[in-house]
Structure formats: C-alpha cells, structure tokens
Design a protein that fits this description.
elongated; 16% strand; alpha+beta
Amino acid sequence: MGRYSILSICQALEVSRSNQYQHRRARPKRYERMEDPVILSEILKITTDRGTYGYRRTTALINRQRRKESRSLVNKKRVLRIMQMNRLVLGRSGTRKERYHTGKVMTIASNIRYCSDIFEIRCWDGGNIRVAFSLDCHDREAMAFVAHPRPLSQPKVPVRSLGR
C-alpha cells in the first residue's frame, strides 16, 4: 500500500527484487527500429527478382549498393531479423534422417575399408614393445601385424601377414 519500499520487503523475504514488478504491457518478441521500413524496401527489391537468396547474400547486395551511395552498412543479423519478421526467409531444404552412431564402422564387402593403429606395451625390464596392426572393417579380421622392440618408423621391420 506504499508504506514500505519494494527493496525492504524483498530483503525481508529474501527474494529477488527484479521479479516483483508487474509489467503492464507484454514486451514484444522482436524490437523494431525506425530505419527498418527503409531496409525492408531494399530487401524487397532484391528478393522479388531472386526469391531464393538467403539473408547473407541479400545483406551483401544491400551493402554493395550502400557502399556505392556512401551510406552506412547493414548488419547481417539485422537483415535476418527483418526478413524473419516479414516471412521472407525460406525453410530448410529437405528433411534430415536420424542416424544413430553405434560406434561400428561397417562396409558391405571385404577389402573396401581398413583401419589401423599402433600402440606400445611397457615390459617389466623397462623396454617397450611396439605393435602395429591393420583390420578389415567388414569382418574385423586382422590382415597384418608387426611387433618389435624398436620404433616402427625405421626401415626393415618384418611384417607378419595373416594369409590374405
């Protein structure tokens, strides 16, 4: 009733003061600026001839014209906002299928796709054994492998094939 301030009431109740004010008018979802009709007319000049142009290309064409006339440039997000408010933006093309990745890479036949890896095994005596292998992605069969105590990038490392 006006006896106490909002601040003292909110402090006593330990609530946020910003949530206690009641707005008389609902805020608009998007703001509008004074120059928006001017920019909209420039957008409509471009999109009437080329309806498939997106906001980025439209912005580039508007800014190119504005540079020639020595006027200030327009932000691409502003052009997007104006185009969305006037329903000038096309929807996304095509529908996207939901594909779940199960972690397995599969192929329809053998000898199409391969994967390989190198790892080290530390031994009790302090040495390292380096192992490299190659797998076929179709049946997960090891095609070849090598294990050696020296780095595998050195030449003449014997590779053991598994009979492919």
